Amino acid sequence: MRKRILLIATVLLLVTGVAFAQMDWQKYPANPVLDYGTPGSWDALHVSQPSVLYDGVRYQLWYAGHNGVQWNIGYARSQDGVEWDVYPGNPVLNDGPGDAWDSIYVSRPCVLFDGTQYKLWYTGYDGERLRIGYATSNDGLLWTKQPDPVLDTGAPGSWDAEGVGSSSVLFDGTQYKLWYTGYDGERLRIGYATSNDGLLWTKQPDP
Fold first, then answer.
1. What are 176's strand-pairing partners?
2. Whole-angstrom distance, CA of residue 46 vs CA of residue 67
3. Does pLDDT of 102 surpass 80?
4. What is the Cα–Cα distance from 118 to 150, expressed in whole angstroms?
5. Alpha-carbon distances of 27 from 17, 24, 31, 33, 53, rounded to whole Å
6. Which residue has better confidence, 21 or 96?
7. How far apart are the C-alpha atoms of 161 and 198, rounded to whole Å?
8. Which of 73, 94, 118, 130 is the least buried, fewest Cβ under 10 Å from its Cβ?
9. In this structure, are residues 138 and 146 in contact, taking their beta carbons and an 8 Å threshold?
């Protein structure tokens, strides 16, 4: 019995060691691999917040760009993840019109592909609150937004009452799982929600 326990402990240590060894990253010496745009362009000041997919042939990248006034979402693709071809029609997702819930800016994309359709969750801002929106596309370039946010702020006084954003979404084969940042006016914390379709989300109770 003692030998069995020692064997299990040794295996666990080895597995843990392998897992942590995968965290030993080496920076690419020629960074950055995607630079900001030309003066006057939509991404002239910053490019950040990447969401990357690999389809077995190429890497696809959606990212936020900032021109000093607003954020929008652009697209690039690559054969090796290093040399990127920026889509000339960028940005592919813009802020909403008028007094829409995402009328000031859109940022922080998270993209999944289900085999036929691209699905994008993003952070939108109306000048008062951050919320999470959703859009779909057949090619990753032309997006159709849902008119309203799919994840809204919490009730007054809750840990995410003042803003939700920065979504990270996974699909486990049956259910969508979303981790997001919530803001209560003072602190940022991470929450969790689940969905059967990526549209209607059930938040976990407040911590």
1. 171, 195
2. 7
3. yes
4. 16
5. 21, 10, 8, 11, 20
6. 96
7. 21
8. 94
9. no
Cα separation, 149 vs 132, in Å, equals 5
190 contacts 204 by C-beta, under 8 angstroms: no
Runs of H (alpha helix) within the chain: 2-21
Strand-strand pairing, 59-66 and 46-54: antiparallel
Q: In angstroms, how far apart are the furthest CA atoms of the chain? A: 71
Which of 6-15, 173-182, 193-202 is predicted with the least confidence, judged by mean pLDDT? 6-15
The position carrying tokens 């030998």 is 3
List, in order, residues 6 or more apart from 10 with CB less than 8 Å away: none
Q: What is the C-alpha to C-alpha distance for residues 179 and 176, in angstroms, rounded to an integer?
A: 10
Is the overall model pTM greater than 0.85, yes or no?
Answer: yes
CA-closest candidate to residue 163, choices 173, 153, 177, 178: 153
Tell me, rounded to whole angstroms, the distance of Cα 118 from its chain centroid.
13
Q: Position 203: which residue type?
A: K
Handedness of CA 166, 47, 90, 81 (dihedral sign): negative
User: In this model, does residue 9 exceed pLDDT 50?
Assistant: no
How far is residue 3's CA from residue 5's CA, in Å, rounded to a whole number? Answer: 5
Nearest Cα residue to 93 out of 68, 65, 67, 114: 65
3-state secondary structure of 8: helix
Strands 130-137 and 118-125: antiparallel
Tell me: the pLDDT tens digits for 126-143? 999 999 999 999 999 999
